[in-house]
Amino acid sequence: MTGSVLKPAAELASTNTRRFPNESAEYRRARQALLVEEIELRRHIERVAELRRALPPGGEVTKAYEFVGEAGTDSLTDLFGSKQTLIIYSYMFGPQREKPCPMCTSFMGTWEEKLPDIEQRVSFAFVARSPIARLIEAKKARGWTRHKIYSDASGDYTRDYVSKDDSDVPGYNVFTRHDGAIRHFWAGEMGAGTMDPGQDPRGAPDMDPLWTLLDTTREGRGADWYPKLSY
Question: pLDDT tens digits for 7-17?
Answer without folding.
Answer: 999 999 999 99
